[in-house]
Design brief:
The chain has 320 residues and is α/β, with parallel strands linked by helices. The chain is built from twelve helices and 14 strands. Strand 2 (30-34), helix 2 and strand 3 (49-51) form a beta-alpha-beta unit.
Length: 320
């Protein structure tokens, strides 16, 4: 039976992935960790939880050694918008944290899942059908840490034999845990606003296409890759994965099919718009499909129906 450690387990991805892993491997076999943010009740009561600081290697090593961990899902990270406001913090958390996780993995023979992001690309990267292997010159601190993280994971695999794997996530959408500090947060906010106020003011301009993915597919990508036959992985780290390329008006049009009175206007956030403009419109995820069978299950229509149904129940609001 695997023993799994999840860093960043209180975050948007980690809070949901931890529960998926506990259901699959047993509650006591998945150790959730976080830094300062208090975990919600279900996460806290369903299995082991520890506060750690991934920038301090001993706090990472202690639960790995204590529970005889063999697999680490490293999700602790400072996201794009917050990283631009606090670049030194972003470097320390995103890079020193990853280095410590990889060192612990080397010493204790652990496998590591470390996600990258579309932020690893930049304004000189091809915007359309962005290849798996292409120019990566990001102009944000978050992007810089993600490119460096991809290279560091590759180095630890080639130099020390650490089984490192990862995907480049697009914008992630979930009704369970709200995002905080990302450029694509609007793709979650718009659904809550549609249900609560029937209107939304978008901070990205019309026609800003970005890759998006529903959280169930994001969790599936992580677990499918970690369960894939390593002999078939030519890239191992930073696989492009996507499900849909969507602009704000596409979300609005789909929402209006269910909530006809919904309206959207625009008030552009220059920082977030500049970040979004440096990212691809859509990625080519052929390598993930060929090497480990990646296949998303949700498109914009099916995701929208599920988001509205679940948020309505969560907020105890009826859709007329």
């Amino acid at each position: 039976m695997q023993k799994i450690l999840v860093t960043g387990a209180v975050g948007q991805i980690g809070s949901e992935l931890t529960m998926v892993l506990r259901k699959r491997h047993g509650n006591e076999n998945v150790i959730a960790t976080g830094h300062k943010r208090k975990p919600y009740k279900t996460l806290l009561e369903s299995g082991p939880f520890h506060f750690i600081d991934c920038t301090k290697i001993n706090t990472v090593a202690e639960p790995v050694k204590r529970y005889k961990v063999d697999t680490i899902y490293h999700l602790a990270s400072i996201l794009s918008v917050v990283a631009e406001g606090q670049p030194q913090l972003a470097w320390n958390v995103n890079m020193i944290g990853l280095y410590n996780v990889l060192e612990v993995a080397r010493n204790y023979k652990c496998r590591v899942f470390d996600p990258s992001s579309i932020s690893a690309f930049g304004p000189t990267t091809p915007l359309n059908n962005t290849p798996q292997d292409t120019t990566q010159r990001p102009n944000t601190m978050y992007g810089v840490t993600k490119v460096a993280g991809e290279l560091l994971c590759d180095y630890y695999f080639k130099r020390f034999g650490v089984d490192t794997r990862g995907v480049r996530y697009p914008g992630l959408i979930s009704y369970k845990t709200l995002p905080s500090g990302g450029t694509t947060d609007y793709a979650v906010e718009i659904y809550y606003a549609a249900i609560k106020q029937r209107k939304y003011t978008c901070y990205l301009k019309k026609g800003t296409y970005l890759d998006m993915m529903y959280m169930p597919d994001a969790l599936k990508a992580a677990t499918d890759l970690m369960e894939a036959n390593p002999a078939k992985l030519k890239h191992r780290n930073a696989f492009n994965v996507t499900a849909m390329s969507v602009a704000p008006e596409d979300f609005a049009a789909e929402i209006k099919k269910i909530i006809p009175g919904f309206t959207m206007d625009f008030k552009i956030d220059s920082l977030r718009q500049a970040i979004a403009d440096s990212w691809p419109n859509n990625m080519d995820d052929t390598r993930a499909r060929e090497e480990w069978g990646w296949q998303p299950e949700y498109d914009l229509e099916s995701m929208t129906k599920d988001m509205i149904e679940n948020i309505s129940q969560k907020c105890k609001m009826k859709i007329d």
